[in-house]
């Protein structure tokens, strides 16, 4: 009797599972078709925008490429990241609107919207499973009612911990000692524009002060100002540099939600925002102009409601367009010296510092070396620059008892400048901390010029000063550095560090460099680390120390930097 009932239950069970599987297949086909239609509409809308903006396919190629990229398409197959190129083929479609036809590449809709596929499939599978369980319960009740009574099965008792016994701890995350280090900060200045005015009886100024205070309560310094044009200006201070885009989008959302309280007919496209992110010391007039430009670009765009212009991107171009002589800033001591710490990835202790100079420009704020060094082309300029850095580091080491190693990046011209080395030898006379100095030299410069630099290397070796081979891209030439007795470390090129967590080829090269460095007794350091994933990957590969904005921004005094334990 029981056997007959069981077979009666199992037969519909197979039918139920088959029907559920077919439902899942049909649902995914339908979902894929809907999403593909969405891609087609997006592509057609993109073609319409190109037509409405009257963009020339050749003259405005960069603008069209930006529009295409913002919608998840690419004009060339090489522009699309090929992380899954061996498994998934790109789709190609032609989108047309009147006289405009765009041939674009994109990933299949199920890849782009994979999160939606997974989410909806999980819901459907959960519903099917829930229904299956209820069906099984009802079926078992029929089976039990018809079956003869059986002896109960003894419960399986789970083992319990003995008195005083502790559960096994989770694996220790030894990188946590570094994760709490302060990050680099930016300030955000934003201008808002909306098409529909607020009611006349609303105090817009105070209203948005309350809105911004509630929406960004974690930020201590923030301000809101009502503009004569009717828009508002918002300033958010001390925003983590890695979250600038996140805060920008959040700012637009907070203001949009606040506007809905009085204008329920508004869409997100009716609220436009222009943003400029900048560092402390930036000229506020330049910040305001950049923000106005960003707002204008946002207002002109039918699809981009938020536009951000970083302040730093304008520094190099403004310097190159001006006739200003930056030599005078160094001569008048309008500069600041910062120190970038290098952290041991095992202990969290600081192994050394890299000296970095910043010019205090009258309108552009603090300028990093990458902005002003290309403008200093004369031998006299770069000589004064490196003399200034060495002198300041020397004074710092005299005042900081027990200070660690400090590395200095000499300008390439000064490595071959006899005037600098004569000055350097005289400057080091009577200086007891010369053994705490390290001078960084690019791998390319060493390989091309090491014979011409033999006297310079000898000078540093006599002073017990170290040499750091910087910007190393492969393990091929590491054995060459054994010719020098005072090469103390290897620094990986930034191009090997950036996005190493997702690039297997970079990981392979770094692993080879570390293996060869261990063989030759050269410690390998990483520079320019910006994300947690990059840091974790580098540590797993065997890098023993690293520096970058992920850990801390450069500080003015060695004493300001505290080891983490």
Automatic annotation (TrEMBL):
Recorded hits in Gene3D superfamilies, A to Z, give: EAL domain (3.20.20.450)
- The EAL domain extends over 319-565
CDD domains, per this entry?
EAL
Q: Which UniProt keywords apply?
A: Membrane, Transmembrane, Transmembrane helix
Q: Is this entry keyworded ATP-binding?
A: no
Q: Which Pfam families match?
A: EAL
Judging by the UniProt lineage, the source's domain of life is Bacteria
Name the residues that span the membrane: 12-31, 114-132
| PANTHER family given in the database record | CYCLIC DI-GMP PHOSPHODIESTERASE PDEF (PTHR33121), RNASE E SPECIFICITY FACTOR CSRD (PTHR33121:SF32)
What's the name of the protein?
A: EAL domain, c-di-GMP-specific phosphodiesterase class I (Or its enzymatically inactive variant)
Organism expressing this protein natively? Pseudoalteromonas lipolytica
């Amino acid at each position: 009797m029981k056997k007959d009932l069981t077979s009666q239950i199992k037969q519909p069970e197979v039918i139920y599972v088959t029907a559920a599987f077919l439902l899942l297949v049909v649902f995914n086909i339908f979902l894929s078709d809907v999403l593909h239609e969405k891609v087609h509409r997006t592509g057609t809308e993109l073609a319409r925008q190109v037509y409405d903006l009257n963009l020339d396919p050749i003259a405005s190629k960069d603008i069209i490429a930006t529009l295409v990229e913002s919608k998840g398409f690419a004009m060339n197959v090489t522009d699309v990241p090929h992380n899954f190129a061996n498994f998934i083929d790109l789709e190609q479609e032609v989108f047309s609107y009147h006289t405009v036809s765009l041939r674009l590449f994109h990933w299949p809709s199920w890849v782009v919207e994979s999160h939606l596929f997974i989410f909806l499939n999980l819901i459907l599978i959960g519903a099917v499973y829930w229904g299956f369980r209820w069906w099984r319960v009802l079926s078992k009740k029929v089976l039990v009612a018809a079956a003869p009574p059986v002896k109960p099965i003894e419960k399986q008792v789970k083992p319990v911990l003995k008195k005083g016994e502790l559960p096994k701890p989770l694996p220790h995350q030894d990188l946590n000692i570094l994760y709490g280090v302060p990050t680099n900060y930016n300030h955000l200045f934003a201008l808002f524009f909306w098409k529909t005015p607020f009611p006349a009886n609303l105090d817009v100024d105070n209203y948005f002060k309350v809105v911004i205070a509630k929406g960004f309560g974690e930020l201590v310094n923030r301000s809101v100002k009502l503009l004569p044009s009717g828009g508002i200006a918002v300033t958010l201070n001390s925003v983590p540099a890695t979250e600038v885009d996140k805060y920008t989008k959040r700012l637009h959302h907070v203001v949009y939600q606040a506007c809905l309280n009085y204008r329920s007919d508004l869409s997100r496209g009716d609220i436009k925002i222009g943003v400029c992110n900048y560092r402390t010391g930036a000229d506020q007039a330049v910040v305001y102009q950049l923000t106005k430009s960003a707002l204008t670009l946002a207002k002109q765009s039918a699809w981009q409601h938020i536009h951000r212009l970083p302040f730093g991107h304008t520094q190099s171009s403004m310097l190159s367009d001006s006739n200003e002589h930056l030599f005078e800033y160094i001569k008048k001591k309008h500069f600041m010296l910062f120190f970038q710490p290098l952290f041991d990835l095992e202990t969290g202790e600081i192994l050394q510092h890299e000296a970095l100079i910043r010019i205090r420009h009258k309108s552009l704020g603090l300028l990093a070396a990458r902005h002003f060094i290309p403008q200093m082309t004369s031998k006299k300029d770069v000589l004064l620059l490196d003399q200034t850095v060495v002198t300041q580091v020397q004074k710092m080491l005299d005042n900081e008892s027990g200070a660690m190693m400090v590395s200095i990046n000499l300008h390439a011209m000064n490595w071959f400048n006899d005037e600098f080395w004569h000055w350097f030898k005289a400057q080091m006379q009577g200086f007891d901390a010369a053994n705490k100095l390290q001078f960084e030299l690019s791998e390319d410069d060493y390989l091309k010029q090491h014979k011409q630099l033999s006297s310079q290397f000898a000078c540093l070796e006599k002073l017990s000063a170290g040499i750091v081979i910087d910007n190393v891209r492969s393990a091929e030439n590491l054995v060459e550095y054994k010719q020098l007795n005072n090469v103390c470390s290897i620094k990986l090129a930034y191009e090997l560090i950036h996005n190493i967590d997702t690039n297997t080829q970079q990981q392979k090269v770094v692993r080879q460099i570390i293996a060869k460095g261990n063989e030759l007794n050269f410690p390998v350091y990483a520079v320019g680390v910006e994300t947690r994933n990059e840091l974790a990957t580098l540590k797993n590969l065997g890098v023993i120390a690293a520096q970058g904005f992920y850990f801390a921004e450069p500080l003015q005094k060695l004493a300001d930097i505290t080891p983490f334990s």
